[in-house]
Amino acid sequence: MYKLSKELINILEENRINYCHWKSNLLLNEALNGYDDLDLLVEKKDIYKFERLISQLGFKEASNPSIGLNAVKHFYGLDTKTGNILHLHVYYQIKTGPSWIKSYRFDFEEYFLDHTMYHESGMKVPEKHIELVIFVFRIMLKYSKLNEFILISKEDERTKKELEYLFIDIDEGKLIDFLNIYFPLVSKDNFFNYIKIIQTGSLFQKYNIARQLKKQLVKYNIYTMCEEFYKNTYQLFYRVSNKLFFKQKKKLHSCGILIIVAGLDATGKTTITNDLKKYLKKNFTLSLIHFGKPSSTFITYPINLAIKVMRKQSNDSSLRSSKQTNKPKSTLYIIRQLVLAYDRYSLIKKIWNRVSNGEIVICDRYKSEEFGVMDSRRLNPDDYSGFKRKLAKLENNLYNKMPQPDLLFYLTVPVDVAVQRNEERIKDGKESEEFLRIRHSENQSLTYKAKEQYKINTDEDYGDVISNIKQMIWNKL
Q1: Cα separation of 237 and 244, whole Å?
Q2: How far apart are CA 54 and CA 28, in angstroms?
Q3: Which residues, 6 or more positions from 461, have their beta carbon under 8 angstroms from its beta carbon?
Q4: Whole-angstrom distance, CA of residue 415 vs CA of residue 419
């Protein structure tokens, strides 16, 4: 069990929050260890206290408005021991049915919460007769939608195992009373026939009986037939297009964030940015960009293409972006730096708009405040006059207009370690030892502007390094 899961159970118990983990309790131990989300039902009177308590544990709310449901929220917390994220799927009303639209609201939350027991983990769960009824109805209602039918059919084995689990030590008398009180149109025989259909029914039988059940549960349906059709069609279109094109997940309510991972060559930037991407992208809308290698814009593409061709045909080092102290800069070199500054500015402006709309953006490298070093201003206007001076000012102005990141990690490592790492890297066109030593020498002690920044020595245990970075990011989100 995650350390965070244990802390969650303890704090809810100590503060007498009326709640339970209301479904999928067969795999509750696995869910408490991050395998799946935790589905919590919380009594309405405890909502404010519940949200205040979980915020003390570091949980943060996130949502995707295109697939959100009223009275159903998502919270995410960082388990500091493992560096993994725990997802709370919190219900303030019992909403169920087809996964995409949850078209049924069972308005007996009080009964649910008044009939709970303790799971071996210490978490409160509903008594078996309640969970069995809701589980059977959930599965049957999914059979009524073609898109849901395909998804649920892939989980037949898990469904049968869950039925077996729910039948263990069940009180049949309570089961029948529960049906009589809240589902009077569903007889005992009907109910056990539904179970048989789930276990052994044909595709046609499952669909046909699911339609019958919908009629028996009509009092709990919160949508008209037309509304249900519209919502299901919309969700189908959105989810398919999102999977193929938009790649949207949830956005944190605490707003977006621009995270920079900067540092010299072979300090671990690529490894760390990729690990951070895996850490956050599972749950949140996230972009990973490279500041040093921006794509050309529509305006700069022809210029960059021409420069690329010229670089291949010429040995003139003035076409390159390496540091050239005490050497005259050609007009072509100055234009190259201006174009690069424009491409970088365009990239940052675009991702800054995403951050302002709630996205998380991780950027590999960023501009420093020095002249003539990597990823930064190359042109000091004081070194030029006339037309060249105007171009230098334009380049400087583009860098000056770039926003300060919310969080910046500057990675460092002794140059000998960087050389050794570089030798071990599998990378096309990787830097020579001479180039690496010169690069480290030229770019030592860079200064950055950021709302918060940390210097990270990556020559320490990597597990500790990445864990500390994750914790600092989570605190800032």
Answers
A1: 11
A2: 19
A3: none
A4: 6
